[in-house]
Amino acid sequence: GAPCPQWPYCRKRCSYCNFNTYVVPAADEAAVRACLVRETRTLLRLGRVQSVTSVFFGGGTPSLASPATITAVLEAAAEAAHLPDGAEVTLEANPSSAGTPRLAGFRAAGINRLSIGVQVRVGLPRPSPCGPPCPPAATVLSPQSLDDAELRLLGREHTAAEARGAVEVARGLFPGRTSIDLIFGLPGQSRGAWARGLEAALGLCDDHVSLYQLTLERGTALAAQVSGGALPTPPQDLLADMYLTACTMLVAKGFWHYEVSNFARKGALSTHNLSYWRAEQYIGVGPGAHGRFVPWGEGGRSREARVQTLEPDAWMREVQSRGHGTRRRVVLSPLEQLEEVLALGLRTDEGVTHERWGRFSPHLSLEAAFGAPGEAEALQEQGWLVLDGG
Fold this sequence. Notes:
The protein folds into two domains: 2-277, Transcription Regulator spoIIAA, CATH 3.30.750.200; 363-389, no CATH class. 38% of the residues lie in helices and 16% in strands. The chain is built from 14 helices and twelve strands. The strands form two sheets. A nine-stranded mixed sheet has the order 7-8-6-5-4-3-2-1-9, with helices on both faces. Strand 5, helix 6 (191-204) and strand 6 form a beta-alpha-beta unit. It is globular. This is RSAD1 protein. InterPro entries: Coproporphyrinogen-III_oxidase, Elp3/MiaA/NifB-like_rSAM, HemN_C, rSAM, rSAM_sf. Residues 2-245 form the Elp3/MiaA/NifB-like radical SAM core domain. One of its GO terms (biological process) is porphyrin-containing compound biosynthetic process.
């Protein structure tokens, strides 16, 4: 079992974000901590989890929580199930809340891997007479710089200097276990500037890199700017070129491209994220968290998709009254489970193993599903699908 505790609060909402996040003057951390602890215990016992394989603190901005909250949740997980000493325990961190004392506190609390959201220099272009306004600081920045102008476009709270400093501190405290998240495909971004920015980012951190193509989500500030014509729409072919350029660069620098968006050097891959892609059990804890597990503790026999109540105060009331805040639970049909096994497994370089498929489909083998004539055979002939002994 892999618990995924969510801290729902942020200091500021980024312009591209449509996650379940809340900006409040002051969160009642003691109350949230107590509810995270209680829900962790409840759901681990509900899933009859024997051993915790990994823990991932996401958000929101979990680095805004105090190390005491991290400690409390990990202690709750260790009480409800076995938490091995070497289990991967990741914290997502925002550079503005990732100073040395704070990160050292998280390490002492039990965090052993850090995932930092930074952003690389993109060289926003000079505006044409009918083009978008250019944020003011996009001009005289060296290639080694992260770009403050781009950070403002994204509505990020931290500065470029804070991002560089946070990564340097993190690598000192979590050597070989620091990951950086990079976004590409911003309005006005060029492939060359993206490549230069990626090169600069790799100078800061070469353990693990996650690449995310910017999605313009309806209802976000950035999407409104693009749909209103204030910013250009990124061309799809350019986005594909940016992705392939990054893949080529990273592999050339010794990264293992182990998942569509994820790259690791020297074995620094994320075991927690692999649990998603391998369709293993994971337990969402906190407002809006998602989970996939079998609720053996209440007589369940089938894998369920679960979503916790979105709004933090409502979620806390539910946890206080019944031990957990699960708002929606759907029993996944055998077909839905197989679709997830395939859709997630085919994101990885290991693919879907016969053994994993067999756990979800004891009666229909991979060969039977894909070896028959038809579309699958055509995909094999074209080299898009490989069906072998593994």
